[in-house]
Amino acid sequence: MLKLRLLIVEDEKEQREMLSGFLHKEGYQVFSADSGPPALKLFEEKSFELALIDLKMPGMDGLELLSKLKKLSPDTQVIVMTAYGTIETAVAAMKEGAFHYVNKPIDLQELLINLKKAAETHTILAENRYLKEQLEGRFHDTTIIGQSKAIQEVLSTISRVAKMDTTVLILGESGTGKELVARAIHSLSPRSHKKFVAFSCSAIPESLLESELFGYERGAFTSANRRKEGRFEIADGGTLFLDEIGDVSFDMQIKLLRVLETQEFERLGGKESIKVDVRILTATNQDLLKKMQDKTFRDDLYYRLNVISIYLPPLRERRDDIMLLIDYFLKLYNAKLGKEIKGLTPPAKDILINYHWPGNVRELENVIERGVVLARGDVIDVNDLPEFRMPEQKADFPVELSLAEMEKRHIQRVLEKTKGSITKSAEMLGIHRNTLRLKMKEYGLAAE
Q1: Which stretches of 190-244 are assigned E, i.e. beta strand?
Q2: Mean pLDDT of all residues in 416-434
Q3: What's the whole-number mean pLDDT along residues 323-348?
Q4: What whole-number distance in Å separates Cα of residue 75 and Cα of residue 73?
Q5: How confident is the model at residue 79 (pLDDT cuts 50, 70, 90)?
Q6: pLDDT grade for 26, boundaries at 50, 70 and 90
Q7: In whole angstroms, how far apart are CA 113 and each of 6, 82, 105?
Q8: Mean pLDDT throughout 33-49?
Q9: How far apart are alpha carbons 392 and 381 in whole angstroms?
Q10: DSSP conformational letter for 295
């Protein structure tokens, strides 16, 4: 494994040499500078994953150096060192992009922990940047949009599993973009120059599934007047994506398992064993663990498919991405339909942000396409949106309750539902975590 490159910028020679020696022994490739200008020169000559900067230095101080370093290398994670009396300055540095700060005198174990976390953050950012560049370069019409933590984790996993020729099970509700993830994995894999074949196991009758997947010989059945290749043969050398794998019958599961284990099969009506080299990606919106308990999905097939799993959260669980997706679809359908829609009116925007999106990203795309078509002016208004069916809610609060009491009871119910999670409760309530904590204190509520 390559050593992480670390730049130490400290004007005190004894402190600089102590840190350099310690971190070199801990496995880092350490460079050092006694002030801002030589540090910038090193940055221009080399690339660094990590930097450790003293805030108080003569000439160019740590804040100015931090700003210049982040412009040169946005992914470099910077930890600032500060004396006890300059915590405010350290907080200001974090606002400027520093990963974290440590107090002097330096607690070396605390420093190691922070450097490890900073290195992990750098790795994720670098992976996601690489993935984004590769996706934009290889297929412009399929883009994974999102800045939420959940989507960033998905992107990070894609970049890691793409190079490995292993099976991946993609989980998520309908419309969350499971095929998009499969295409991204294929596009970044060594098989990207070969075919990507997508097939929905629920799109055709069970009686035709075997012939569609494995092909058939002439005369295999009444209308088989010629030999036909199945999806496995078509995808040979590339990637086969089997969507809705949870809908496959028990008998077909046995045949799929054999192909996964041997990469061999016979066409329907044929005797010749055909060998293929195919990477298998699958997806489902069903609970396969429950189907295993119900004995409708084979354990051995599940473990074969689920070497790596990627979960795509529903759109209602990543509302931070809704406006990004809206902007993306506006640009897409403006270009396709020759329109110049600039955005949405505030009431229309509020509806889309607060809607529960049972159809997920696919439903949102359809809504924006409709809005672009129907908009009379250069913005989409409420009248251009479909009539949304909101989830039914029981009005189980007595009408005699005050608003404060109703709010208290609702917060209490949400806390119970999330098992006391402040973060999840705040997301469900649509408020900041600090606001929720204040209201819990006001109403005497405690997280379980």
Answers
A1: 196-200, 239-243
A2: 81
A3: 93
A4: 6
A5: very high
A6: very high
A7: 15, 17, 16
A8: 87
A9: 25
A10: T
Which domains are delineated in the chain? 5-125 (3.40.50.2300), 149-311 (3.40.50.300), 316-384 (1.10.8.60), 403-443 (1.10.10.60)
Mean pLDDT score of the chain: 86
Specify the pLDDT at position 141: 43
Give the C-alpha separation, 57 to 281, whole Å: 54
Sign, CA dihedral 330-332-333-337, equals: positive
C-alpha distances in Å from residue 28, one per residue of 16, 122, 440: 15, 15, 45
Distance CA 430, CA 413 (A): 15
**58-76 tens-digit pLDDT:** 888 888 999 888 888 888 9
- The pair of structure tokens assigned to 317 is 């669980």
What is the dihedral angle through the alpha carbons of 189, 191, 193, 197, rounded to the nearest 10 degrees?
-100
| Rounded Cα–Cα distance for residues 242 and 82 (Å) | 55
401 token code pair: 């309750």
How many residues are listed for the chain in this entry? 448
Q: How confident is the model at residue 416 (pLDDT cuts 50, 70, 90)?
A: confident
Q: Angle at which helices 108-138 and 178-187 pack, to 10 degrees?
A: 90
Cis peptide preceding 74, ω within 30 of 0: no
